[in-house]
Structures are given as structure tokens and as C-alpha cells.
Specification:
It is a single chain. The chain is α/β, with parallel strands linked by helices. The chain is built from 7 helices and 6 strands, in the order αβαβαβααββαβα. The protein has a single domain (19-237), classed as Alpha-Beta Barrel (TIM Barrel). Helix content is 48%, strand content 11%. Helix 4 (111-129) crosses helix 5 (147-155). The radius of gyration is 19 Å and the shape is globular.
Length: 240
């Protein structure tokens, strides 16, 4: 009976470490990211799951209109056939990072498969940009990691970026107070926004995403807030 209890305790500990450590790492990372954004008083726009054939060019047009830079977490499987858009992103001075290749939930996927997916995502970006063996900052799909993949990224010194707010939710573009972005108001102004620029077939979703981004940039401009990339935020926070 004692040996069974010991085995169960060991099993529980292993499960806790495997799933718990990445979750704790994410919470700490998000808290640090939020503190950096608020302290710097900046808006950081990040886009996941692209490039999209229609949405990404529309996003680039809005960013250009406001002379703003953003960070794009490209999904490897969406790059094929859209290499020109990837090059347009870099040509416009935006930051390119990786979102993996297949959009697996890394928490529920085997370690070897997740590491392979990370590498495959890097290669897809490299092929689009005509590069080799590059390492790009990473955002895990769904914000989920397993312990082995987390350790792999940390050992390779790969920046792991999360977010502090989600577009379309913090800016209620369908309500009368749509001109207010609470997360950009007051002394706690500053946020890292998660948005998407993939290929949804629902035009309402596309419009809501674009309206949310336009609203965020409009409010930031009115308040005199800087709009910067994630890497710029990390570098800036080291100086202030």
C-alpha cells in the first residue's frame, strides 16, 4: 500500500512539473509583459496565424496609414503561396516572429512533435525570406507549452512572447462607447494586443478585427502613445 502511494505521489509530481511549470512560466511572463507595457506607456500590436491573403494586406494598409509598426507571428502552413506578403511585412519594417507550423496545442502534443513543429515554422519563414538557419521569436499556439518544448526554447535562448489583451474584446466596436479603449486610458495605459490576420471566411469577423485595430491606433494617436514592436518594448524596458 505504501509503495502504491509513493508511486502515485511521484506520478502526480511529474504531471505537475510537466504541465504546471509552463503554466507558471506563462503567468509570470504575462505579468512582466504587462508591467513593461504599462511602464513604457505603449501600444504593441501583434498578429497571429497569418499571413492571410486578404486580411494581412488590409492590416498592413491600416498600419501604414498610422505610421505604426507591429509584430507578426506567422503560421508556417499559411506561408506557402503567400511568400510575397511575408516579404511585404518585412519591407514595411514590421517584426516577423514564429507561431509554429501546424497550430498544435503544444500542451497536448508530444515533446518531439512540438519541437519539430517549432523548427518547421522557422524553416517556412526562412524559405519565404530567402534565409537559412534563422531563429525567430516564438509565440506558442493557444499560449500553451509542454515542459520539454519550453526547456528547448529556453536553452536555444528563443524569446517567448505572450500578450496582455485581445482585440475585439477590449474594444467594443459595436457599442456606443466604442471610441473609448479602457486599456489605453488612465495611469495604467499600455498593452500588448493579440489580434489575428489569417483567412476567416466570415466577413463580420474580418471587419471587427480591422475596426478594433483602427480604433486602437486612433486612440493611441489621440493620447500620444507610441506604437512599437515587441522587441522594441523589451529593449525599451531595459532602459527605463
Amino acid at each position: 500500500m505504501t509503495s502504491v502511494i509513493i508511486i502515485l505521489c511521484i506520478l502526480f509530481f511529474v504531471i505537475f512539473v510537466y504541465f504546471g511549470v509552463p503554466s507558471i512560466y506563462k503567468r509570470l511572463s504575462v505579468a512582466l509583459l504587462k508591467r513593461r507595457a504599462v511602464k513604457a506607456g505603449v501600444l504593441v500590436l501583434t498578429f497571429d496565424d497569418g499571413p492571410g491573403s486578404h486580411l494581412t494586406p488590409a492590416v498592413l494598409e491600416i498600419l501604414d496609414r498610422y505610421d505604426a509598426k507591429a509584430t507578426f507571428f506567422l503560421l508556417g502552413r499559411n506561408i506557402m503561396g503567400r511568400e510575397t506578403i511575408v516579404r511585404q511585412i518585412t519591407a514595411a519594417g514590421h517584426e516577423i516572429c514564429s507561431h509554429g507550423y501546424e497550430h498544435f496545442n503544444y500542451r497536448m502534443t508530444s515533446p518531439l512533435r512540438t519541437i519539430s513543429d517549432v523548427k518547421r515554422g522557422w524553416r517556412a519563414i526562412d524559405q519565404a525570406l530567402g534565409k537559412r538557419d534563422s531563429i525567430y521569436a516564438f509565440r506558442p499556439p493557444y499560449g500553451k507549452l509542454n515542459l520539454i518544448c519550453l526547456l528547448y526554447l529556453l536553452v536555444r535562448r528563443v524569446p517567448i512572447f505572450y500578450w496582455t489583451s485581445v482585440s475585439g474584446y477590449i474594444w467594443p466596436v459595436d457599442t456606443q462607447d466604442s471610441r473609448k479603449a479602457a486599456v489605453l486610458e488612465g495611469e495604467s495605459a499600455g498593452t500588448v494586443v493579440l489580434a489575428h490576420d489569417s483567412n476567416p471566411t466570415d466577413e463580420y469577423i474580418n471587419k471587427k478585427e480591422l475596426d478594433s485595430i483602427s480604433l486602437a491606433l486612433s486612440v493611441a494617436k489621440e493620447k500620444g502613445m507610441k506604437v512599437i514592436t515587441l522587441s522594441e518594448l523589451v529593449g525599451l524596458s531595459r532602459e527605463i
